Amino acid sequence: MTDLTALTIADARYKLRAKEFSAAELTEAFVEAVEGGDALNAWCEKTPDLAREQARAADARLAAGEAPSLCGIPVGIKDLFCTNGVRSQAGSRILDGFRPPYESTVTANLWADGAVMLGKLSMDEFAMGSSNETACYGPVVNPWRRKGDDATLTPGGSSGGSAAALAASMAMATTGTDTGGSIRQPAAFTGLVGLKPTWGRCSRWGIIAFASSLDQAGPFTRTVRDAAIMLGSMASVDEKDSTSADIPVPDYESALSGDIRGKRIGIPKEYTVDGMPAEITALWEDGAERLRAQGAEIVEISLPHTKYALPAYYIVAPAEASSNLARYDGVRYGHRVEPRQGDGITEMYERTRAEGFGAEVKRRIMIGTYVLSAGYYDAYYTRAQKVRRLINRDFEQAFGQVDAILTPTTPSPAFGLGEKSDPLEMYLQDIFTVTVNMAGLPGISVPAGLSSDGLPLGLQLIGKAFDEENLLNTAYALESALEFSATPERWW
Protein backbone atom coordinates (compact mmCIF):
# COMPACT_ATOMS: atom_id res chain seq x y z
CA MET A 1 0.00 0.00 0.00
CA THR A 2 1.18 3.54 -0.78
CA ASP A 3 2.42 5.49 2.24
CA LEU A 4 -0.88 6.99 3.33
CA THR A 5 0.71 10.08 4.88
CA ALA A 6 2.20 11.08 1.50
CA LEU A 7 -1.16 11.34 -0.27
CA THR A 8 -2.82 14.59 -1.30
CA ILE A 9 -6.42 15.30 -0.29
CA ALA A 10 -7.57 14.74 -3.87
CA ASP A 11 -5.84 11.35 -4.08
CA ALA A 12 -7.02 10.22 -0.65
CA ARG A 13 -10.58 11.28 -1.41
CA TYR A 14 -10.61 9.10 -4.53
CA LYS A 15 -9.05 6.11 -2.78
CA LEU A 16 -11.44 6.36 0.18
CA ARG A 17 -14.40 6.22 -2.16
CA ALA A 18 -12.80 3.35 -4.07
CA LYS A 19 -12.47 1.55 -0.71
CA GLU A 20 -8.70 1.04 -1.13
CA PHE A 21 -8.49 1.87 2.59
CA SER A 22 -10.82 3.21 5.26
CA ALA A 23 -10.91 6.57 7.01
CA ALA A 24 -9.97 4.72 10.20
CA GLU A 25 -6.84 3.29 8.55
CA LEU A 26 -5.90 6.66 7.09
CA THR A 27 -6.39 8.38 10.43
CA GLU A 28 -4.35 5.76 12.29
CA ALA A 29 -1.43 6.33 9.92
CA PHE A 30 -1.48 10.03 10.76
CA VAL A 31 -1.94 9.45 14.51
CA GLU A 32 1.27 7.39 14.40
CA ALA A 33 3.04 10.14 12.42
CA VAL A 34 1.97 12.75 14.99
CA GLU A 35 3.28 10.60 17.84
CA GLY A 36 6.63 10.23 16.05
CA GLY A 37 7.11 13.93 15.37
CA ASP A 38 7.69 15.40 18.84
CA ALA A 39 11.14 16.69 17.87
CA LEU A 40 9.48 19.40 15.76
CA ASN A 41 7.29 20.64 18.65
CA ALA A 42 4.51 21.43 16.17
CA TRP A 43 1.56 20.05 18.15
CA CYS A 44 0.39 21.71 21.36
CA GLU A 45 -2.62 19.42 21.86
CA LYS A 46 -3.10 15.94 20.36
CA THR A 47 -6.61 14.50 20.01
CA PRO A 48 -6.16 10.87 18.85
CA ASP A 49 -9.35 9.60 20.50
CA LEU A 50 -11.44 12.33 18.91
CA ALA A 51 -9.76 11.65 15.55
CA ARG A 52 -10.63 7.95 15.73
CA GLU A 53 -14.23 8.77 16.65
CA GLN A 54 -14.55 11.20 13.72
CA ALA A 55 -12.92 8.64 11.39
CA ARG A 56 -15.52 6.03 12.34
CA ALA A 57 -18.26 8.54 11.59
CA ALA A 58 -16.59 9.32 8.25
CA ASP A 59 -16.51 5.63 7.34
CA ALA A 60 -20.23 5.40 8.05
CA ARG A 61 -20.90 8.34 5.73
CA LEU A 62 -18.68 6.81 3.05
CA ALA A 63 -20.51 3.50 3.33
CA ALA A 64 -23.85 5.28 2.97
CA GLY A 65 -22.66 7.10 -0.14
CA GLU A 66 -23.19 10.48 1.52
CA ALA A 67 -19.58 11.58 1.82
CA PRO A 68 -18.80 15.31 1.37
CA SER A 69 -15.49 16.62 -0.01
CA LEU A 70 -13.35 16.21 3.12
CA CYS A 71 -14.90 13.04 4.51
CA GLY A 72 -12.21 11.09 6.37
CA ILE A 73 -9.41 13.61 5.68
CA PRO A 74 -7.12 14.13 8.75
CA VAL A 75 -6.24 17.76 9.42
CA GLY A 76 -4.49 19.87 12.04
CA ILE A 77 -5.93 23.10 13.49
CA LYS A 78 -3.99 26.21 14.47
CA ASP A 79 -4.26 27.00 18.17
CA LEU A 80 -5.99 30.30 17.32
CA PHE A 81 -9.23 28.48 16.35
CA CYS A 82 -11.59 27.74 19.23
CA THR A 83 -12.51 24.05 19.26
CA ASN A 84 -15.27 22.76 21.50
CA GLY A 85 -13.82 21.13 24.63
CA VAL A 86 -10.27 21.12 23.24
CA ARG A 87 -7.61 23.41 24.70
CA SER A 88 -7.41 26.64 22.66
CA GLN A 89 -5.03 29.25 24.03
CA ALA A 90 -3.43 31.13 21.11
CA GLY A 91 0.04 30.10 22.21
CA SER A 92 -0.25 32.27 25.34
CA ARG A 93 -0.02 31.68 29.08
CA ILE A 94 -2.81 34.22 29.58
CA LEU A 95 -5.28 31.63 28.20
CA ASP A 96 -3.76 28.69 30.04
CA GLY A 97 -6.24 25.84 30.29
CA PHE A 98 -9.00 27.53 28.29
CA ARG A 99 -11.33 24.95 26.72
CA PRO A 100 -14.08 26.70 24.76
CA PRO A 101 -17.67 25.43 25.07
CA TYR A 102 -18.21 26.30 21.39
CA GLU A 103 -16.69 25.76 17.93
CA SER A 104 -15.31 28.32 15.50
CA THR A 105 -17.31 28.62 12.29
CA VAL A 106 -14.38 27.54 10.12
CA THR A 107 -13.71 24.36 12.08
CA ALA A 108 -17.44 23.63 12.34
CA ASN A 109 -17.55 23.80 8.53
CA LEU A 110 -14.65 21.33 8.31
CA TRP A 111 -16.29 18.85 10.69
CA ALA A 112 -19.59 19.16 8.80
CA ASP A 113 -17.70 18.16 5.66
CA GLY A 114 -16.28 15.09 7.40
CA ALA A 115 -12.75 16.23 8.23
CA VAL A 116 -10.93 14.50 11.10
CA MET A 117 -9.09 16.55 13.77
CA LEU A 118 -5.66 15.24 14.76
CA GLY A 119 -5.04 18.06 17.23
CA LYS A 120 -4.05 21.70 17.71
CA LEU A 121 -0.92 23.28 16.27
CA SER A 122 1.51 25.67 17.91
CA MET A 123 1.83 29.29 16.82
CA ASP A 124 3.44 32.58 17.79
CA GLU A 125 1.66 34.01 20.81
CA PHE A 126 -1.60 35.64 19.66
CA ALA A 127 -0.25 35.31 16.08
CA MET A 128 2.38 37.96 16.75
CA GLY A 129 5.60 36.81 15.16
CA SER A 130 7.32 35.64 11.99
CA SER A 131 9.34 32.71 13.34
CA ASN A 132 7.14 30.74 15.79
CA GLU A 133 9.51 31.49 18.64
CA THR A 134 7.09 33.44 20.85
CA ALA A 135 4.70 30.60 21.76
CA CYS A 136 4.40 29.59 25.41
CA TYR A 137 5.02 26.02 24.20
CA GLY A 138 8.52 26.84 22.94
CA PRO A 139 9.77 27.23 19.36
CA VAL A 140 8.57 25.03 16.51
CA VAL A 141 11.30 23.48 14.34
CA ASN A 142 11.24 23.41 10.54
CA PRO A 143 11.61 19.85 9.18
CA TRP A 144 13.87 21.26 6.44
CA ARG A 145 17.60 21.74 7.06
CA ARG A 146 20.35 23.46 5.12
CA LYS A 147 22.66 21.24 3.11
CA GLY A 148 25.38 19.85 5.37
CA ASP A 149 24.11 21.80 8.39
CA ASP A 150 22.22 20.48 11.43
CA ALA A 151 21.17 23.92 12.69
CA THR A 152 17.49 24.14 13.59
CA LEU A 153 15.52 26.49 11.36
CA THR A 154 12.29 28.40 11.81
CA PRO A 155 9.21 27.18 9.95
CA GLY A 156 8.05 30.81 9.81
CA GLY A 157 5.22 32.38 11.72
CA SER A 158 2.82 32.88 13.10
CA SER A 159 1.35 29.65 11.71
CA GLY A 160 4.63 27.77 12.05
CA GLY A 161 3.15 24.69 13.71
CA SER A 162 0.66 24.32 10.87
CA ALA A 163 3.43 24.54 8.28
CA ALA A 164 5.88 22.23 10.06
CA ALA A 165 3.29 19.52 10.72
CA LEU A 166 2.15 19.41 7.10
CA ALA A 167 5.68 19.56 5.66
CA ALA A 168 6.59 16.62 7.91
CA SER A 169 3.54 14.64 6.66
CA MET A 170 1.82 14.69 10.05
CA ALA A 171 -1.47 15.92 8.55
CA MET A 172 -3.09 16.01 5.13
CA ALA A 173 -3.87 19.74 5.45
CA THR A 174 -3.79 22.33 8.21
CA THR A 175 -5.49 25.61 8.99
CA GLY A 176 -3.73 28.90 9.56
CA THR A 177 -4.51 32.57 9.91
CA ASP A 178 -2.87 35.41 8.03
CA THR A 179 -2.68 38.94 9.45
CA GLY A 180 0.45 40.14 7.65
CA GLY A 181 1.74 37.00 5.94
CA SER A 182 1.33 34.33 8.59
CA ILE A 183 0.15 31.68 6.12
CA ARG A 184 2.15 32.62 3.04
CA GLN A 185 5.55 33.10 4.71
CA PRO A 186 5.54 29.74 6.58
CA ALA A 187 4.32 28.04 3.40
CA ALA A 188 7.29 29.46 1.49
CA PHE A 189 9.72 28.39 4.24
CA THR A 190 8.45 24.79 4.22
CA GLY A 191 7.72 24.07 0.55
CA LEU A 192 3.91 24.21 0.79
CA VAL A 193 0.96 25.97 -0.78
CA GLY A 194 -0.42 28.64 1.55
CA LEU A 195 -3.63 30.52 0.71
CA LYS A 196 -4.79 33.75 2.33
CA PRO A 197 -8.36 34.40 1.08
CA THR A 198 -10.02 37.79 0.69
CA TRP A 199 -10.81 39.41 4.05
CA GLY A 200 -14.39 38.38 4.81
CA ARG A 201 -14.37 35.19 2.71
CA CYS A 202 -13.98 32.99 5.82
CA SER A 203 -15.78 33.78 9.06
CA ARG A 204 -13.64 35.06 11.92
CA TRP A 205 -16.17 33.94 14.54
CA GLY A 206 -14.45 31.72 17.09
CA ILE A 207 -10.95 32.72 15.95
CA ILE A 208 -9.05 34.48 18.73
CA ALA A 209 -8.51 38.02 17.45
CA PHE A 210 -5.18 39.77 16.83
CA ALA A 211 -6.06 42.60 14.42
CA SER A 212 -9.68 42.32 13.34
CA SER A 213 -9.46 44.28 10.08
CA LEU A 214 -6.49 42.18 8.91
CA ASP A 215 -6.97 38.63 10.26
CA GLN A 216 -8.17 35.98 7.81
CA ALA A 217 -8.27 32.18 8.01
CA GLY A 218 -6.90 30.02 5.21
CA PRO A 219 -5.42 26.59 4.46
CA PHE A 220 -1.97 25.04 4.15
CA THR A 221 -1.88 22.21 1.62
CA ARG A 222 0.55 20.25 -0.53
CA THR A 223 -1.07 21.28 -3.82
CA VAL A 224 -3.18 24.07 -5.26
CA ARG A 225 -6.01 21.60 -5.91
CA ASP A 226 -6.03 20.68 -2.22
CA ALA A 227 -6.13 24.39 -1.34
CA ALA A 228 -9.21 24.79 -3.54
CA ILE A 229 -10.87 21.84 -1.80
CA MET A 230 -10.07 23.19 1.67
CA LEU A 231 -11.22 26.74 0.89
CA GLY A 232 -14.50 25.40 -0.47
CA SER A 233 -15.17 23.96 2.98
CA MET A 234 -13.71 26.73 5.15
CA ALA A 235 -15.43 29.66 3.41
CA SER A 236 -18.99 30.67 4.24
CA VAL A 237 -21.19 33.58 5.11
CA ASP A 238 -21.85 33.66 8.85
CA GLU A 239 -24.57 35.53 10.71
CA LYS A 240 -22.35 35.44 13.81
CA ASP A 241 -19.67 37.48 11.98
CA SER A 242 -21.02 40.74 10.57
CA THR A 243 -17.83 41.17 8.51
CA SER A 244 -18.15 37.86 6.64
CA ALA A 245 -19.11 38.53 3.03
CA ASP A 246 -22.61 37.52 1.94
CA ILE A 247 -21.28 36.20 -1.38
CA PRO A 248 -21.85 32.66 -2.70
CA VAL A 249 -18.89 30.30 -2.30
CA PRO A 250 -17.93 29.01 -5.77
CA ASP A 251 -16.74 25.51 -6.62
CA TYR A 252 -13.08 26.41 -6.54
CA GLU A 253 -11.86 22.99 -7.59
CA SER A 254 -13.88 23.00 -10.81
CA ALA A 255 -12.22 26.30 -11.78
CA LEU A 256 -8.78 24.64 -12.05
CA SER A 257 -8.38 24.34 -15.81
CA GLY A 258 -4.79 25.58 -15.88
CA ASP A 259 -5.64 27.69 -18.95
CA ILE A 260 -4.24 31.20 -18.49
CA ARG A 261 -3.95 32.16 -22.16
CA GLY A 262 -4.60 35.87 -22.56
CA LYS A 263 -4.30 36.61 -18.83
CA ARG A 264 -2.18 39.61 -17.87
CA ILE A 265 0.22 39.11 -14.97
CA GLY A 266 1.61 42.19 -13.26
CA ILE A 267 5.19 42.51 -12.00
CA PRO A 268 5.39 45.40 -9.50
CA LYS A 269 8.66 47.27 -9.86
CA GLU A 270 8.58 48.35 -6.21
CA TYR A 271 9.07 44.75 -5.04
CA THR A 272 12.68 44.78 -6.23
CA VAL A 273 14.17 45.75 -2.89
CA ASP A 274 17.75 46.51 -1.91
CA GLY A 275 19.66 43.54 -0.58
CA MET A 276 17.30 40.90 -1.96
CA PRO A 277 19.31 37.73 -2.72
CA ALA A 278 20.02 37.15 -6.41
CA GLU A 279 18.45 33.70 -6.22
CA ILE A 280 15.11 35.22 -5.15
CA THR A 281 15.23 37.61 -8.12
CA ALA A 282 16.14 34.76 -10.49
CA LEU A 283 13.27 32.64 -9.16
CA TRP A 284 10.84 35.52 -9.66
CA GLU A 285 12.01 36.04 -13.24
CA ASP A 286 11.77 32.32 -13.92
CA GLY A 287 8.21 32.21 -12.60
CA ALA A 288 7.21 35.08 -14.88
CA GLU A 289 8.75 33.35 -17.90
CA ARG A 290 6.92 30.12 -17.12
CA LEU A 291 3.62 31.96 -16.99
CA ARG A 292 4.49 33.68 -20.26
CA ALA A 293 5.21 30.28 -21.83
CA GLN A 294 1.65 29.23 -20.94
CA GLY A 295 0.14 32.14 -22.81
CA ALA A 296 0.01 34.88 -20.20
CA GLU A 297 1.19 38.40 -20.89
CA ILE A 298 3.71 39.80 -18.41
CA VAL A 299 3.20 43.48 -17.64
CA GLU A 300 5.28 45.79 -15.44
CA ILE A 301 3.09 47.69 -13.00
CA SER A 302 3.60 50.20 -10.22
CA LEU A 303 2.36 50.02 -6.64
CA PRO A 304 3.90 53.30 -5.50
CA HIS A 305 2.81 53.22 -1.87
CA THR A 306 4.34 49.79 -1.20
CA LYS A 307 7.25 51.37 0.70
CA TYR A 308 4.81 52.71 3.30
CA ALA A 309 2.97 49.42 3.81
CA LEU A 310 5.22 47.91 6.47
CA PRO A 311 5.34 50.97 8.79
CA ALA A 312 1.60 51.55 8.34
CA TYR A 313 0.89 47.88 9.12
CA TYR A 314 2.96 48.05 12.31
CA ILE A 315 0.77 50.93 13.48
CA VAL A 316 -2.63 49.52 12.50
CA ALA A 317 -2.02 45.95 13.70
CA PRO A 318 -0.69 46.82 17.19
CA ALA A 319 -3.46 49.41 17.62
CA GLU A 320 -6.12 46.78 16.98
CA ALA A 321 -4.24 44.26 19.11
CA SER A 322 -4.10 46.61 22.10
CA SER A 323 -7.89 46.89 21.92
CA ASN A 324 -8.58 43.18 21.32
CA LEU A 325 -6.24 41.98 24.05
CA ALA A 326 -7.67 44.31 26.69
CA ARG A 327 -10.25 41.60 27.47
CA TYR A 328 -7.64 39.26 28.98
CA ASP A 329 -7.57 40.22 32.64
CA GLY A 330 -7.70 36.92 34.56
CA VAL A 331 -11.26 37.41 35.77
CA ARG A 332 -13.43 34.95 33.81
CA TYR A 333 -11.02 32.47 32.24
CA GLY A 334 -7.37 31.72 31.64
CA HIS A 335 -4.35 32.55 33.77
CA ARG A 336 -4.75 34.59 36.96
CA VAL A 337 -2.21 35.83 39.46
CA GLU A 338 -3.88 35.67 42.86
CA PRO A 339 -3.95 39.03 44.68
CA ARG A 340 -1.45 39.63 47.45
CA GLN A 341 -2.36 41.01 50.85
CA GLY A 342 -3.62 44.56 50.29
CA ASP A 343 -3.89 44.24 46.47
CA GLY A 344 -6.98 45.51 44.71
CA ILE A 345 -8.42 44.41 41.39
CA THR A 346 -6.19 46.82 39.46
CA GLU A 347 -3.06 45.20 40.89
CA MET A 348 -4.46 41.77 40.00
CA TYR A 349 -5.03 42.91 36.41
CA GLU A 350 -1.52 44.33 36.16
CA ARG A 351 0.25 41.31 37.58
CA THR A 352 -1.85 38.83 35.59
CA ARG A 353 -1.17 40.59 32.30
CA ALA A 354 2.51 41.10 33.10
CA GLU A 355 2.94 37.40 33.83
CA GLY A 356 0.53 36.05 31.21
CA PHE A 357 1.72 37.93 28.13
CA GLY A 358 5.09 37.35 26.47
CA ALA A 359 7.60 40.03 25.48
CA GLU A 360 6.48 40.43 21.86
CA VAL A 361 2.81 40.72 22.80
CA LYS A 362 3.63 43.32 25.46
CA ARG A 363 5.71 45.25 22.93
CA ARG A 364 2.83 45.40 20.45
CA ILE A 365 0.23 46.27 23.10
CA MET A 366 2.39 49.20 24.23
CA ILE A 367 2.94 50.39 20.65
CA GLY A 368 -0.77 50.10 19.94
CA THR A 369 -1.80 51.91 23.11
CA TYR A 370 0.69 54.68 22.34
CA VAL A 371 -0.53 55.32 18.77
CA LEU A 372 -4.16 55.38 19.96
CA SER A 373 -3.49 57.77 22.84
CA ALA A 374 -4.59 61.39 22.95
CA GLY A 375 -2.19 63.60 21.06
CA TYR A 376 -0.81 60.78 18.91
CA TYR A 377 -3.95 59.26 17.37
CA ASP A 378 -4.02 61.62 14.39
CA ALA A 379 -0.26 61.70 13.98
CA TYR A 380 0.05 57.92 13.75
CA TYR A 381 -3.13 55.86 13.56
CA THR A 382 -5.18 58.21 11.36
CA ARG A 383 -2.24 58.73 9.03
CA ALA A 384 -1.63 54.98 8.79
CA GLN A 385 -5.27 54.45 7.82
CA LYS A 386 -4.89 57.08 5.09
CA VAL A 387 -1.83 55.23 3.79
CA ARG A 388 -3.87 52.03 3.84
CA ARG A 389 -6.44 53.63 1.58
CA LEU A 390 -3.68 54.70 -0.83
CA ILE A 391 -2.31 51.14 -0.89
CA ASN A 392 -5.80 49.87 -1.70
CA ARG A 393 -6.12 52.43 -4.50
CA ASP A 394 -2.79 51.28 -5.95
CA PHE A 395 -4.15 47.75 -6.24
CA GLU A 396 -7.46 48.94 -7.69
CA GLN A 397 -5.59 50.79 -10.43
CA ALA A 398 -3.25 47.85 -11.04
CA PHE A 399 -6.15 45.42 -11.40
CA GLY A 400 -7.56 47.69 -14.07
CA GLN A 401 -4.58 46.52 -16.15
CA VAL A 402 -3.85 42.97 -14.97
CA ASP A 403 -5.60 39.81 -13.76
CA ALA A 404 -3.06 38.81 -11.10
CA ILE A 405 0.22 40.03 -9.64
CA LEU A 406 3.39 37.93 -9.22
CA THR A 407 5.96 38.65 -6.49
CA PRO A 408 8.38 36.77 -4.25
CA THR A 409 6.76 35.53 -1.03
CA THR A 410 9.72 36.19 1.28
CA PRO A 411 13.03 38.08 1.02
CA SER A 412 15.01 34.98 2.07
CA PRO A 413 14.70 31.24 2.76
CA ALA A 414 14.10 29.99 6.30
CA PHE A 415 16.57 31.34 8.85
CA GLY A 416 17.89 29.76 12.02
CA LEU A 417 16.01 29.82 15.30
CA GLY A 418 17.44 32.64 17.38
CA GLU A 419 19.18 34.28 14.41
CA LYS A 420 16.99 37.39 14.31
CA SER A 421 16.89 38.95 17.76
CA ASP A 422 16.20 42.50 16.52
CA PRO A 423 12.40 43.01 16.28
CA LEU A 424 12.76 45.39 13.32
CA GLU A 425 14.79 42.81 11.40
CA MET A 426 12.07 40.25 12.12
CA TYR A 427 9.32 42.63 10.96
CA LEU A 428 11.05 42.96 7.57
CA GLN A 429 10.13 39.32 6.87
CA ASP A 430 6.63 40.65 6.08
CA ILE A 431 7.78 43.10 3.41
CA PHE A 432 6.18 41.27 0.46
CA THR A 433 3.04 40.08 2.21
CA VAL A 434 1.58 42.90 4.35
CA THR A 435 0.29 44.92 1.39
CA VAL A 436 -2.18 42.11 0.64
CA ASN A 437 -3.62 42.25 4.16
CA MET A 438 -3.75 46.04 4.20
CA ALA A 439 -5.86 45.91 1.01
CA GLY A 440 -7.90 42.87 2.10
CA LEU A 441 -6.97 40.94 -1.06
CA PRO A 442 -6.41 37.20 -1.62
CA GLY A 443 -2.85 35.93 -1.96
CA ILE A 444 -1.29 32.52 -2.40
CA SER A 445 2.27 31.23 -2.02
CA VAL A 446 3.33 28.43 -4.35
CA PRO A 447 6.57 26.44 -3.78
CA ALA A 448 8.88 27.44 -6.62
CA GLY A 449 12.35 26.02 -6.06
CA LEU A 450 15.24 25.48 -3.67
CA SER A 451 17.86 27.94 -2.49
CA SER A 452 21.56 27.30 -2.86
CA ASP A 453 21.39 25.84 0.67
CA GLY A 454 18.66 23.40 -0.38
CA LEU A 455 15.78 25.26 1.33
CA PRO A 456 12.35 25.95 -0.19
CA LEU A 457 11.50 29.28 -1.78
CA GLY A 458 8.05 30.50 -2.74
CA LEU A 459 6.39 32.80 -5.25
CA GLN A 460 3.30 34.80 -4.36
CA LEU A 461 0.31 35.51 -6.57
CA ILE A 462 -2.09 38.29 -5.59
CA GLY A 463 -5.63 38.39 -6.95
CA LYS A 464 -8.66 40.64 -7.09
CA ALA A 465 -10.99 40.74 -4.10
CA PHE A 466 -13.32 37.69 -3.97
CA ASP A 467 -11.76 36.33 -7.15
CA GLU A 468 -10.13 33.28 -5.59
CA GLU A 469 -11.33 31.18 -8.53
CA ASN A 470 -9.04 32.93 -11.01
CA LEU A 471 -6.25 33.29 -8.45
CA LEU A 472 -6.29 29.55 -7.76
CA ASN A 473 -6.37 28.75 -11.47
CA THR A 474 -3.34 30.97 -12.12
CA ALA A 475 -1.57 29.36 -9.16
CA TYR A 476 -2.47 25.95 -10.58
CA ALA A 477 -0.87 26.88 -13.89
CA LEU A 478 2.24 28.18 -12.11
CA GLU A 479 2.46 25.06 -9.95
CA SER A 480 2.19 22.82 -13.03
CA ALA A 481 4.95 24.74 -14.78
CA LEU A 482 7.30 24.76 -11.78
CA GLU A 483 6.86 21.04 -10.98
CA PHE A 484 8.18 21.44 -7.42
CA SER A 485 8.29 18.05 -5.74
CA ALA A 486 11.05 18.29 -3.12
CA THR A 487 10.38 17.12 0.42
CA PRO A 488 12.49 17.41 3.58
CA GLU A 489 14.84 14.53 4.35
CA ARG A 490 13.60 12.88 7.54
CA TRP A 491 15.84 13.46 10.58
CA TRP A 492 13.24 13.85 13.37
Would you spell out the secondary-structure blueprint of this structure?
Elements: H1 9-17, H2 23-35, E1 43-46, H3 48-63, E2 74-78, H4 105-112, E3 116-121, H5 160-167, E4 173-177, H6 184-190, E5 193-196, E6 217-221, H7 224-234, E7 264-268, H8 278-293, E8 297-301, H9 309-324, H10 345-356, H11 359-371, H12 377-398, E9 404-408, H13 423-427, H14 434-439, E10 443-450, E11 456-462, H15 468-482
Parallel strand pairs: 2-3, 2-4, 7-8, 7-9
Antiparallel strand pairs: 1-3, 4-6, 5-6, 5-10, 9-11, 10-11
Helix pairs in contact: 2-3, 5-6, 7-15, 9-11, 9-12
Describe this structure in words.
The chain is α/β, with parallel strands linked by helices and 492 residues long. The protein has one domain (1-492): Amidase signature (AS) domain (Amidase signature (AS) enzymes), CATH 3.90.1300.10. The chain contains 15 helices and eleven strands. An eleven-stranded mixed β-sheet has the order 1-3-2-4-6-5-10-11-9-7-8, sandwiched between helices. α5 (160-167) packs parallel to α6, α7 (224-234) runs antiparallel to α15 (468-482) and α9 packs across α11 (359-371).
